[in-house]
Amino acid sequence: MITAAIATECLEARAVHFRRGTRVILSDITLRLHSGEIVALLGANGAGKSTLFRILLGFLKPEHGEVRLNDELLAAFSRRALAQRIAYVPQAHIAPFPYRVHDVVLLGRLAETGIFRTPQPADHQAVGEVLERLAITHLAARPYTEISGGERQLTLIARALAQGASILVMDEPMTGLDYGYQVRLLQHLIDLAGSGRTILLSTHNPEHAVQAATRIAVLRDGAIMADGPPAQIITPSLIRALYGVAVSTLTNAEGRMVIVPTMERVSPIGA
Ligand SMILES: Nc1ncnc2c1ncn2[C@@H]1O[C@H](COP(=O)(O)OP(=O)(O)OP(=O)(O)O)[C@@H](O)[C@H]1O
């Protein structure tokens, strides 16, 4: 069952360096993720967020540095052993076959034990639970190739949740989701972290980071320029440096930070 006890895990990049050709994409990146944390990675388009995720997942090899899971090199784990621990929601995905949404999510259940295993009633039940939790039960019988972009995104999130891994790496999971699904997903991520899961997500919306993250890491010019609690990291000057826009940060009646664009016209980044 996906509600089984969650193992305590620590995933970390140590002094990771990565180049594409002569271009340095990531330089001396150290990032540690612990159980119960929601870490939001912020960075402008092309900053290297997906690249760092792919390195943390073992899909790309760093030129220098290493990735360790519970102090063991990632390379020491088989693909199946990694699937037991880390689930991934990629940025964009078009399935080549018109699998039903239920079956796409079922693949998450089989990631751990091999896709040639015959699904058991417990697997189908777990899929049903995840679809219900994400409020997409109505999509179960629809072909994945014939649903909307946001519905595909929810299906991929459901597949990752069904995997039952204790670490979730989510590349811009809110993309394409309507406002209600965005808020419900953030609430669900907070619940998952509360039950001991570790969540790393990238987002282009600093509001989401402030609302859900326990830590924010900021990637700029290939390096981590800041890493810490949201209230310390998110400042108007950081938002301006990252995105070239002016914002005010306010505290609402519940004591939570709110980010509001001032609509002041500022120079483009680097101008
Ligand atoms: N397959 C590739 N070949 C060459 N360069 C690439 C490749 N994939 C990404 N890059 C480059 O590496 C840099 C980092 O890309 P990456 O996708 O990691 O950024 P990102 O922060 O995830 O961006 P976004 O927010 O736009 O999704 C970019 O300059 C990008 O153009």
Polypeptide structure, described:
The protein has 271 residues and is of the alpha/beta class. It has nine helices and twelve strands. The protein has a six-stranded mixed beta sheet with strand order 6-7-8-3-9-10, sandwiched between helices. Strands 2-1-4-5 form a four-stranded antiparallel beta sheet, covered by helices on one side. A two-stranded antiparallel ribbon has the order 11-12. Helix 3 (101-111) packs across helix 4 (121-133), helix 3 (101-111) packs parallel to helix 5 (149-162) and helix 4 (121-133) packs across helix 5. The termini are far apart. Bound molecules: adenosine-5'-triphosphate (ATP). Adenosine-5'-triphosphate is lined by residues 20, 25, 43, 45-51. Adenosine-5'-triphosphate binds at residues 20, 25, 43, 45-51.
Residue ranges: pLDDT <50 for 5 or more in a row?
A: none
Q: Calculate the terminal CA-CA distance, rounded to whole Å.
A: 53 Å
Order of helices and strands: EEEHEEHEHHHEHEHEEHHEE
Largest sheet: 6 strands, mixed
**What would you call the shape?**
globular
Q: Measured on Cα atoms, how large is the radius of gyration?
A: 19 Å
Strand-residue proportion:
25-35%
The largest beta-sheet arranges its strands as 6-7-8-3-9-10
Mean pLDDT: 91
The computed structural class is alpha/beta
Estimated helix fraction: 25-40%
Heteromolecules bound: adenosine-5'-triphosphate
Number of helices: 9
DSSP strand tally: 12
Provide a quick synopsis of the model.
By secondary structure, the protein is of the alpha/beta class.
